[in-house]
Every structure is written in structure tokens, then in C-alpha cells.
Design brief:
With about 550 residues, this protein is α/β, with parallel strands linked by helices. The protein is built from 24 helices and 8 strands.
Length: about 550
């Protein structure tokens, strides 16, 4: 008996033309082909599916064996031509070319493979119906479409109910040991799509991470000219400019303390001051350090028995001392003691002192009271989160610096969704720029939404007229009923005007809707209230800050 099972006889071309013939499947013959147990079971299932043990008839659907590897390649090429026309060149290059191909065609389903989970999600979300249309055009019938992420070990899709989904040629080929002539390896030098996406994400993470280097060199790129000023930071910026013009006791603010959440521009202002002082007063010695760097330097001086040199350097040589993140000295009592004496000496000698922190002086735990009081000797200013208009300006400036073209709609979408910090705003654009660069595509709204996982622009619609009114009521301690009333009390009128102004600004409610909510007033009364607020903002700078605080409360 010849040790070869006649697969070609039963599964070759022209199957329907052969006469009916009874076929018995003996799985015990399969080991003669060096199949392992798993491969033998797969092959047995395949043969039993196509060749029932009772008889072989011409009623077996032709489409089961209709596509060999060359035909699948032709179908794949036709599909790519069709899909490129439907989605456009940019999206085709980003999501389909070189990464999206047909892996299997079964009786009812076509399985596509792609290289990354990111691309799989985008195609499933936005392009699946277009793929089905293209397949129907190419093959003349509708197929279910499944998209899988293909890994190096993934060649077959296993399902308990679909044994016909195996490719018999692959089963036999993969189970047969390779000869020395067939054995080969490939050194992949071109980056995969996942490699490119990793590069994009790495660029973004590097920008937005909050870790600062121990030593701060003055960054000549951070100046007042490229610092975007808005209601949230105008006082801090004006103070920094005044210091740069007249540092120390020659000016108005010999000691300044700036605090805000991370990523809102404190460090940028320090570098801007350093650059401007160096430009206008080159005779002055400027020292810009992090609190960690200050502490590290002091510890090294103690270890090297040079604490005297350390004290002399700070008290006698420095004219402008700026320490970033001063809160990091908490619970470092030895460093705090040295800082206390250095502060006193510099302050008494009329030198300039600037400190930044993520908390106000009284809120820092682990700092001695004598140091807290000195940090409050001078001007204490805070920076709030930027409002929508400031975020728009920041994004446009950054996009211009990156030579990245984005439509006004995209800029607005990002500004609506990213509110927490300037660092994250800029990081979003850096990520888009990196994606456009490595993928060689232009950015559109769909890509922005998926890359940045942005909330819908309309997400702010959940802010209702009533919510604005309640926040105003709680902030000023005035019952909402009084704000809606006809009372002309000065405090109530101020709260009512702000409520109307913020309602119109934040949720774009109509004048009629605002008037009806606030006591049935007509649209002229609402216009008058909004205009009053705008006039006061021009005359009273602190009102802009007050409004920004209210906006942040409403958005949270």
C-alpha cells in the first residue's frame, strides 16, 4: 500500500465534474504525513466537512474551493483600488496601504488582518460599511466582514462551529518540516505601523509628563513674546514683566510667589523673566533652579565639607533667585533651615526672589511656619485654568510653530475637550504633528477624534441653564429664587448679570430662554445685563478672574 493519502484526487480542481464516489475517511492514515495531533484533527475535520462519509456529490458549493492564493491576491488588489476611491488618499495611506489585507475567505465571511489595534478600532468604527460595499462590488455578493489584528504567530482563525474556515493548504504546509532549501529568515528593517504609533505616543508622553530635570538651564525659547495671556494668567504675567524691567528692591515686587496646578505656565514665566533680565540687565547674576536641585546641591556641599562655599555663593553672588516647585522642600528640615537664612540675606540686600508652587504658601504641608510667612511677604498670585478663548489662542500659536495646518473646527474641538492644562493642549498638537509626519497624511476631524480620544464638542451641552444658576447661587450665597426675582439689590443684581452672561457664553442659550429662566425678563434686559458685565471686565481686571473661577466650577 502506498504511503500517501490521495488529497489531490478528492480536493483538486474539477471536483463537480467527477462521478459520485463513496469515500471512507480513515484518520489513522493521516499520521503517515508527519502531522502532529492538533494538525491531524484539523485536517480530519476539513476533509470530513467537504467529503461526507456517505457520498461525494456535485452539490458541494463551488465557492468553497473557488479562490486559490492567486485569486485571493487579485481580489485583494481590486478591493484596495475600490477602497482608496471611497475613503480618499490620506485615509487610505494611513489605515489601509501596506497594513490591511484579506486573510481568509470562507463561505459567508471574509477575514481581514491589520497590523495594530489602533487601526482595527478606527476601521471598525468608521469604515466597515465601506469595506462591505467594496467586497460586494468585487465579488458580486455580500459577505460578513471581520477584522483581526495579525500577530507573528496568528495564521488561522479557530472556531468550534466553522471547521471550513481552515485553509487545508496551510494546515499541510505548516505541519510539514521545512527543508534546508526552504528555511530562511528575514531581517525586518522597515518600521511597522505599530512602531510608528509607538513613536507618536512616545513624543506625546515626553512632552506632557510632569517630571522636571534636576537642573534647569534657562530656555531661550520661553519668552514673554510667546506666552499667551488671558484672564487666567494676566496678573501673573504683568507681575513677571514688571520684575524683569526692574528686579529687586528697585522695582515694586522684590518677592513674588506664583502658584497654580501643573502645566499652566509657571515655569514658562520663570524662564521668560530670566531671559528678559539677562537681556536688559546683563550685569546681574540670575539663578534658576528647581527645589530638588537646590536640595541636592546643599547635600553635596555638606558631604564635601563645603557648606560655607554653598552659603556664600547664594548670599553674595546671586542677584535674582528663582526656585521652581518650592513645595518639594516639605519635610526637608535641614534644607529648609539653609533656605531660611538665604532668603533673609537676599531679601535684606534688596535682591529679587521668585518662587513657584502647585499650592499657596499656607496650603503646603511640612513647611515651617517661619518660611511660610516669608513666602507671603511679597506678592502672592495664582494662575487659573485658561478659558476657552485663551485655549484657542494657545492652540493656534502652537500649531503655527509646528507648521501644522488644522481647521478652525478642529481647533475648537480640541479647545472644548482639553481644559486641564496648557501642557496637555500643546501635547495634543505635538501628537497630531508626529502622526502626520510619520504616517505622511493630512489631519482631519475623524483622525483627531480617534487619536486624542476627544469628547464630543457638544459634551458641554450637558451644562444647563439651571446648573449655571445653581453654581452662581452657591458661589455668592444668594438663593436662586432671589437671583430670579425682581430685586434690585446690588449683590443680587451682580449675581444675576453674571449668571446671564455665563449662560449665554457657555451654552449659547438664546436671549429669550435666558430671560424666561431669570424671572420672565425680555431679551432687552438680558442684553443689558451681558453688556454691563463686559463693561465691568474692561474696567475691573479682577472681574475676569472671578468669571474664570465661576466657569471652572460650572464645568466641573
Amino acid at each position: 500500500m502506498e504511503n500517501k493519502f490521495p488529497f489531490n484526487h478528492f480536493l483538486g480542481t474539477g471536483l463537480a465534474e467527477r462521478p459520485k464516489k463513496h469515500v471512507e475517511i480513515d484518520p489513522d492514515e493521516l499520521p503517515l504525513f508527519n502531522f502532529n495531533k492538533n494538525s491531524r484533527e484539523k485536517a480530519t475535520n476539513i476533509v470530513e466537512h467537504f467529503l461526507p462519509t456517505n457520498s461525494l456529490t456535485s452539490n458541494v458549493p463551488d465557492e468553497v474551493n473557488a479562490f486559490n492564493s492567486e485569486e485571493i491576491q487579485d481580489i485583494c488588489e481590486e478591493f484596495h483600488r475600490s477602497i482608496q476611491k471611497k475613503v480618499g488618499k490620506e485615509k487610505y495611506l494611513a489605515y489601509f496601504k501596506g497594513t490591511f489585507n484579506i486573510q481568509q475567505i470562507t463561505l459567508e465571511k471574509i477575514i481581514f488582518s491589520t497590523s495594530t489595534k489602533f487601526i482595527q478600532n478606527i476601521i471598525n468604527k468608521h469604515h466597515k460599511s465601506i469595506i462591505q460595499e467594496s467586497i460586494q462590488e468585487a465579488l458580486g455578493k455580500a459577505y460578513d466582514v471581520e477584522i483581526v489584528v495579525k500577530t507573528s504567530h496568528q495564521t488561522l482563525k479557530t472556531t468550534s462551529n466553522s471547521n471550513h474556515e481552515y485553509n487545508l493548504d496551510k494546515v499541510i504546509q505548516e505541519s510539514r518540516p521545512k527543508t534546508a532549501k526552504e528555511a530562511s529568515f528575514t531581517l525586518e528593517l522597515n518600521p511597522t505601523r505599530q512602531d510608528l504609533m509607538d513613536e507618536v505616543n512616545s513624543t506625546y508622553i515626553k512632552h506632557v509628563k510632569d517630571d522636571k530635570p534636576l537642573s534647569l538651564l534657562i530656555d531661550t525659547g520661553k519668552t514673554f513674546d510667546n506666552f499667551i495671556v488671558g484672564p487666567s494668567n494676566n496678573l501673573a504675567c504683568a507681575t513677571a514683566i514688571a520684575i524683569a524691567l526692574e528686579p529687586g528692591n528697585r522695582g515694586r515686587y522684590p518677592s513674588v510667589y506664583i502658584h497654580s496646578n501643573s502645566g499652566l505656565g509657571k515655569t514658562h514665566l520663570l524662564h521668560a523673566v530670566a531671559n528678559r533680565v539677562t537681556e536688559l540687565h546683563p550685569e546681574l547674576v540670575v539663578c534658576l533652579k528647581t527645589a530638588r536641585d537646590f536640595m541636592k546641591e546643599m547635600i553635596e556641599s555638606i558631604q564635601n565639607n563645603k557648606i560655607g562655599d554653598f552659603q556664600k555663593r547664594y548670599t553674595e553672588l546671586i542677584d535674582v533667585l528663582m526656585i521652581d516647585d518650592i513645595h518639594e522642600l516639605k519635610n526637608k528640615h535641614g534644607t529648609q533651615n539653609e533656605f531660611f537664612h538665604i532668603f533673609n540675606e537676599l531679601y535684606n540686600n534688596g535682591k529679587q526672589l521668585i518662587f513657584t508652587s502647585d499650592k499657596s504658601p499656607e496650603e503646603i504641608d511640612g513647611i515651617e511656619e517661619r518660611i511660610k510667612s516669608r513666602l507671603q511677604w511679597g506678592l502672592v498670585v495664582d494662575i487659573q485654568r485658561p478659558d476657552f478663548e485663551t485655549r484657542i489662542a494657545i492652540l493656534k500659536r502652537k500649531a503655527n510653530n509646528l507648521d501644522l495646518f488644522l481647521s478652525d473646527e478642529i481647533i475648537a474641538k480640541i479647545a472644548h475637550s482639553v481644559r486641564s492644562s496648557i501642557r496637555e493642549l500643546e501635547g495634543s498638537l505635538i501628537k497630531l504633528s508626529a502622526f502626520a509626519d510619520v504616517m505622511k497624511v493630512e489631519i482631519d476631524e475623524e483622525m483627531v477624534k480617534d487619536l486624542l480620544s476627544l469628547n464630543s464638542v457638544n459634551s458641554e451641552g450637558v451644562i444647563s441653564i439651571e446648573k449655571v444658576g445653581k453654581v452662581i447661587s452657591q458661589h455668592y450665597g444668594i438663593p436662586l429664587a432671589d437671583i430670579k426675582s425682581r430685586s434690585r439689590n446690588k449683590d443680587i443684581t451682580h449675581a444675576r448679570h453674571l449668571a446671564m452672561y455665563l449662560t449665554q457664553k457657555m451654552i449659547s442659550a438664546t436671549l429669550i430662554e435666558i430671560g424666561q429662566f431669570y424671572g420672565g425678563r425680555d431679551h432687552a434686559s438680558v442684553i443689558h445685563a451681558i453688556d454691563k458685565v463686559r463693561e465691568k471686565m474692561d474696567k475691573v481686571p479682577s472681574l475676569s478672574k472671578e468669571i474664570l473661577q465661576l466657569e471652572n466650577k460650572i464645568q466641573n
